[in-house]
């Protein structure tokens, strides 16, 4: 049986890391696509030459022509520009919306059966635009944000409690921005919810609040340190987890920016919610019950996403 084909649209910092991880994990053969000539070819060759050392046989190829993504099983989109210090994700909207139009058309023509994972920011608006421009079924187009935001939350919690990251589960929902909603009540250490750990004296409410805020600012903290771009290792690892769930029909329960129409009282909006990812793409949206405080935070986040979608429609009337 032929190996799955994974097309990476954008061969920058995240794209290169995605290619490396996909090859090492032998998820399939990799096409690295970019408008920059030489970059995808150079990265593909460099990673391919690590194959004998790492022991993988995945094939890698760089491309500047969309015809090379033909028949891809998975497309992961990072094309666009990242943040610089002082910028919010929303500042990228105008530039990256145009990029989503060309990427969406490329996928529509050459890889209409792919499962598409968008990483380009501002995430919730860009994944919506990509679905509109590509015309692919909504359950086959998702955004990567919740896995990354939850991973950041889990990392900070494991440091706070001095326990293995493997035993920390966490949920971050809502839009991928300042208003994201880390759900303390649904986050646990080996099943023990965080509010119980506060009661048990493992941490204080003040520390918990500070960790929630650090999670919300997790991307900006890294932009401030790197100065020339934004995070790429953890975003790439997070998208690979989602691609693997699809390719191996794992039925993982992962928070993703998915098209929600009915659940959570929403009508036709892309936003971060718990999903089941399997061979059908988003096979189910897990409509968990939020309490009043959580609902208020979620509503605020949803309003921020609606504002970005409205801004996209203002820029490109074909989306209205
Ligand atoms: N088509 C294809 N590739 C494009 C296009 C386009 N129209 N426009 C830009 N690119 C390519 C660039 O040439 C570059 O190689 O996208 C790549 C982006 O790579 P980086 O600048 O290194 O950005 P990266 O850190 O990978 O982040 C990409 O993900 O997390 C988000 O906010 C981040 O929107 C940004 C995206």
Automatic annotation (TrEMBL):
Gene3D superfamilies: Lactate dehydrogenase/glycoside hydrolase, family 4, C-terminal (3.90.110.10), NAD(P)-binding Rossmann-like Domain (3.40.50.720)
CDD domains given in the database record: LDH-like_MDH
Keyword NAD recorded: yes
Record bears the keyword Oxidoreductase: yes
Pfam families assigned to the protein according to its UniProt record, in alphabetical order: Ldh_1_C (PF02866), Ldh_1_N (PF00056)
Family matches, as InterPro entries: L-lactate/malate_DH, Lactate/malate_DH_C, Lactate/malate_DH_N, Lactate_DH/Glyco_Ohase_4_C, Malate_DH_type3, NAD(P)-bd_dom_sf
Alphabetical keyword list: NAD, Oxidoreductase, Tricarboxylic acid cycle
Top-rank taxon, per record: Bacteria
Record-listed E.C. numbers: 1.1.1.37
Catalytic activity: (S)-malate + NAD(+) = oxaloacetate + NADH + H(+)
Lactate/malate dehydrogenase N-terminal domain segment(s): 5-143
Binding positions for NAD(+) per the UniProt entry: 10-15, 34, 96, 119-121
Catalytic residues (UniProt): 176 (proton acceptor)
Domain annotation Lactate/malate dehydrogenase C-terminal: ranges: 148-306
Binding site for substrate: 83, 89, 121, 152
GO molecular function terms listed in the Swiss-Prot or TrEMBL record: L-malate dehydrogenase (NAD+) activity
Xref: NCBIfam families: MalateDH_bact (TIGR01763), PRK06223.1 (NF004863)
PANTHER family, per database record: L-2-HYDROXYCARBOXYLATE DEHYDROGENASE (NAD(P)(+)), L-LACTATE DEHYDROGENASE
Its biological purpose: Catalyzes the reversible oxidation of malate to oxaloacetate.
Family under the similarity heading: Belongs to the LDH/MDH superfamily. MDH type 3 family.
Protein's recorded name: Malate dehydrogenase
């Amino acid at each position: 049986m032929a190996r799955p084909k994974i097309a990476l649209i954008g061969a920058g910092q995240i794209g290169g890391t995605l290619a490396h991880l996909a090859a090492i994990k032998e998820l399939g053969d990799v096409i690295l696509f970019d408008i920059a000539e030489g970059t995808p070819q150079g990265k593909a060759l460099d990673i391919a030459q690590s194959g004998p050392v790492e022991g993988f046989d995945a094939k890698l190829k760089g491309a500047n022509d969309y015809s090379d993504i033909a028949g891809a099983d998975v497309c992961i989109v990072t094309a666009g520009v990242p943040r610089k210090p002082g910028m919010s994700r929303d500042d990228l909207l105008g530039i990256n919306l145009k990029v989503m139009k060309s990427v969406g058309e490329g996928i529509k023509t050459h890889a209409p059966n792919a499962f598409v994972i968008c990483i380009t920011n501002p995430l919730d608006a860009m994944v919506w635009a990509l679905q509109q421009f590509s015309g692919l079924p909504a359950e086959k187009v998702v955004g990567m944000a919740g896995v990354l935001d939850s991973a950041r939350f889990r990392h900070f919690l494991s440091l706070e409690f001095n326990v293995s990251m493997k035993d920390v589960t966490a949920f971050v929902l809502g839009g991928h921005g300042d208003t994201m909603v880390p759900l303390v009540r649904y986050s646990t250490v080996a099943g023990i919810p965080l509010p119980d750990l506060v009661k048990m004296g493992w941490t204080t409410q003040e520390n918990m609040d500070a960790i929630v805020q650090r999670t919300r600012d997790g991307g900006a903290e890294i932009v401030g340190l790197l100065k020339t771009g934004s995070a790429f290792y953890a975003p790439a690892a997070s998208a690979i987890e989602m691609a693997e769930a699809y390719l191996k029909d794992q039925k993982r329960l992962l928070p993703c920016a998915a098209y929600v129409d009915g659940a959570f009282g929403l009508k036709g909006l892309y936003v971060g919610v718990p999903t089941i990812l399997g061979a059908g793409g988003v096979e189910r949206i897990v409509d968990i019950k939020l309490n009043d405080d959580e609902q208020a935070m979620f509503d605020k986040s949803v309003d921020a996403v609606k504002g970005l979608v409205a801004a996209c429609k203002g820029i490109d009337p074909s989306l209205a």
